[in-house]
Every structure is written in structure tokens, then in C-alpha cells.
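Project outcomes to date are best conveyed with an example. Our students and postdoctoral researchers have been running inverse folding experiments weekly, and each run begins with a structure described purely in C-alpha cells. The record below, which covers 250 residues, was selected by the lab manager from last quarter's runs and is presented without edits.
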């Protein structure tokens, strides 16, 4: 029997962009059609069936259509197979977040530093989140994302003394609610009918609004400029007072 399970995620382009769809009995017929449609609308689809050759053929078929799919063997009647399938999906999401948010950031820094050395130094600004500073208050909305972004605040502080020897500064931005597609995806998960950030979001800050992305751009420009020549290893909140708002409530 074909079934499909969709994770919560951040809608962006397609209705299921940023979500993971777990489709069982999905290598042919209705199950395969469901999997294909979900993938077409942006989901990362995991196909499953009892026979390995059918799973491989279905994955190959959908990947040929430039769809983001993976697959594994799962006999739904077997508890251990069901658990392995769930663990596979969870681990995939975890790995993807750390690959994009942590590993790629570190590798980019490592590959850029030699070029900065040739120029006598430089400055780096990386992007975390306010949820990294107060995960108990904000992390509930983006739990795995918040964990991966919290690593970046540690990376900033660990690399600061190392890079300072080469006259390279590194700082980290911790944005609060910013008017982006990401924020829209977050609040629409909880408030699907909202057309702008709801009070539950904007009331997190003293400013009672979400910021324009340009306001983050201005802070980054300052951190990269010579005006910030004595600032390194810092995590800078751009949150309209969200940090103070949380602290005053404690």
C-alpha cells in the first residue's frame, strides 16, 4: 500500500520546498506518481519498496527528470525495516544541514584565507542566527537549523585567534526576524494564512517589526571595513532587541 509522509519545513518556491517526503511502496503505480509529484513541487523524496532492484530503477527514473530523490529497501511489515527508513530520513536531514551550514562555511574560509594572506590580511563575516544565542526561546521553531548555526558561533571564536596572526578578522552575524523567504517559510509553518510576519514573530523584538535584509547588509559592511579594525571573534545580534527582550523575561 502506497503511503506518503511529509516533514515540516520551510516553503519557498514549490509547496514542499525544504521538506522531506517519505514515500512507501513508491516504485510503481500510484506510489511512484505521488513521489514524482511531491519532488516536482520541491520535496526531497525518499522512495522505498521491498525489492532493491525496483527501488534503484525508480530512483534512476526520477533523477533522470532532474528530481531530488533517494531510496532504500523497506518491507513495511518488518519493524526493523520501518525504523531503519525513519532513521535514514532523519540522518539525511541532519547531514544536509551540517553540510550546507557548517562544512561548506569552514571549507570556504579555509580556501579563501591563503588569498587574504597574499594581500596582507582581510576580514570575514559569517551568518548565524539569533536562535544560536537563545535556542530555548527561538530554537523551537527551527531546531536542527538552530543547532547547525550554533556551531558557526563557536567556529568564529575558535578561528579568531588563529586568523589574527595573519591579520585576518572574523565575526559572526546573529540575525533575528528578517523579512526573507526563509522567515516567511518559518511563520507559515505555524500560521499558514499569514501574509506578513504575525505578532508572535515581531513581538520577539523591542522594535516590533522584522528587519529589512539591507539592515543586515549595513552591519556586515561595517564589520568588513577598517572602521571595525579592532573587532574580531564577536557574535553580533541584529535582532531589534530580541536578545534583550528574552533576557528581560528571564
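After processing, the design step wrote out the following sequence:
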Amino acid at each position: 500500500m502506497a503511503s506518503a509522509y511529509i516533514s515540516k519545513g520551510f516553503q519557498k518556491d514549490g509547496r514542499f520546498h525544504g521538506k522531506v517526503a517519505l514515500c512507501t511502496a513508491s516504485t510503481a503505480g500510484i506510489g511512484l506518481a505521488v513521489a514524482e509529484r511531491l519532488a516536482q513541487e520541491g520535496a526531497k523524496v525518499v522512495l522505498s519498496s521491498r525489492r532493491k532492484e525496483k527501488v534503484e530503477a525508480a530512483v534512476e527514473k526520477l533523477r533522470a527528470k532532474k528530481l531530488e530523490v533517494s531510496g532504500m529497501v523497506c518491507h513495511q511489515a518488518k519493524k526493523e525495516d520501518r525504523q531503519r527508513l525513519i532513521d535514514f530520513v532523519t540522518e539525511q536531514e541532519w547531514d544536509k544541514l551540517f553540510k550546507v551550514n557548517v562544512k561548506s562555511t569552514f571549507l570556504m574560509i579555509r580556501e579563501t584565507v591563503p588569498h587574504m594572506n597574499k594581500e596582507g590580511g582581510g576580514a570575514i563575516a559569517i551568518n548565524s542566527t539569533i536562535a544560536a544565542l537563545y535556542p530555548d526561546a527561538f530554537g523551537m521553531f527551527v531546531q536542527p537549523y538552530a543547532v547547525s548555526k550554533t556551531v558557526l558561533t563557536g567556529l568564529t571564536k575558535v578561528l579568531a585567534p588563529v586568523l589574527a596572526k595573519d591579520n585576518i578578522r572574523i565575526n559572526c552575524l546573529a540575525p533575528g526576524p528578517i523579512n526573507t523567504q526563509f522567515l516567511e517559510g518559518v511563520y507559515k509553518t505555524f500560521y499558514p494564512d499569514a501574509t506578513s510576519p504575525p505578532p508572535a514573530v515581531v513581538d520577539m523584538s523591542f522594535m516590533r517589526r522584522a528587519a529589512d535584509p539591507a539592515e543586515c547588509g549595513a552591519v556586515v559592511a561595517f564589520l568588513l571595513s577598517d572602521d571595525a579594525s579592532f573587532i574580531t571573534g564577536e557574535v553580533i545580534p541584529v535582532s531589534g532587541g530580541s536578545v534583550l527582550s528574552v533576557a528581560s523575561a528571564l
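The chain has two domains: 3-77, 102-249. The longest strand covers residues 168-175. The training component of this project remains on track.
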